[in-house]
Amino acid sequence: MISKIRKEFGHFQTQSHNFRILVLTNLVYAFVLPVIDIFVAAYIMRSSNDPSKVVIYQLTIYTGIPLTFLVNGYLLNHFKVKNLYALGMLLSGVSMAIMMSLKELDLFGIGIAGLTMGLSFGFYWANRDYLSLANTSDENRNYYYGLETFLYTIIAVIVPICLGWFIESSTGADGARWAYQMITGAVFITTIVASFVCFKGTFADPEKKPFVYFKFDPLWNKFLVLASMKGMVQGFLVTAPAMLVMMLLGREGALGTAQSVGAIVAAVVMYLIGRYSKPEHRLNILGAGLVLFTLAALSNGILYNETGVVLFMMFLLLARPLMDLAYFPIQYNVINKLVEKEKRSEYSYILNHESGLYVGRLFGAGTFLILAYMVSTEVALRYAILIIAIIQLSSIWIAKSVIKSCEGLQHA
Known about the structure:
The chain contains 16 helices and no strands. With about 400 residues, it is an all-alpha fold.
């Protein structure tokens, strides 16, 4: 066993310096992501018991992200990419501090906190996407995302359990609020450490080229449809676990425990898939993720009880990383081919990609809000995810067409 671990560590050491620094930076920041993904939504649920406020919070985040991608493009002409990347990580702590300072969770306060988190995600993901694209190749991207998923999943087990029971151990509303404030302080410290690690990299900045375009190659337009499909799911993947657990289980400790079910096995599986799969396996990996996500939605929609939540979380633990492990390498390969063909900057595609995601996010969140306000919150929580999951299954055919077109472009 020890020899196998050494072998895998040796394989990691063979990667480039910037590859390793990027993984280590994301490893440190991974301690923050479960807090943002789960416990901010849980805090809103605890304080308001209104799932629609969670979705509105998510919508304000998603509004801030594409705007920040655009601003980030201009700032890259004046600041280093790793400085803007670090700024994105630091702003996540600021957003949480704004949320904790609100005496009452009204829509205005939630909107301000959400927009700030949108700024954080915008700077973080815009620059992380560029750095991942620039410092990986098509041959090692499966490994890169498999390794990241392995590390993130392990951390996503530890953090929710520890924080969930830490919050529950604090008695009364004031005690819980104090616990959330302590967690916010820990987030600030962690983002500072992650920024320090990031500065150890020797990352090249993007070329200073125009990056705003409205007409693209047909291959990119086809890929944007796939991006919209992914965007439909993103909001639910972030907020649905917290809303379902708080509604049906009712405690942050239970939330942390539910997140840990089967996660260790999932982490090992993701690492092995990333380590040994080839580019030609991505379509099968994506298909498996889509099927598991549909099974998660079916479990929740049919049962809608504690058992349904646990099954939902178990399927999601495999579905989410499988979809990401396939999706991002496909995206980066398409960008690489089109940069060579159209002679544009990589960032022009990264920026435009966000518009595809945003359209999907609006559709997904809108589906939930329409069902919540026109029918009931229970119907929205049970069936909005299922509707999106069924639509999402068509991604497999879109992805197949994108991969085929990309191969055709390669041989042209």
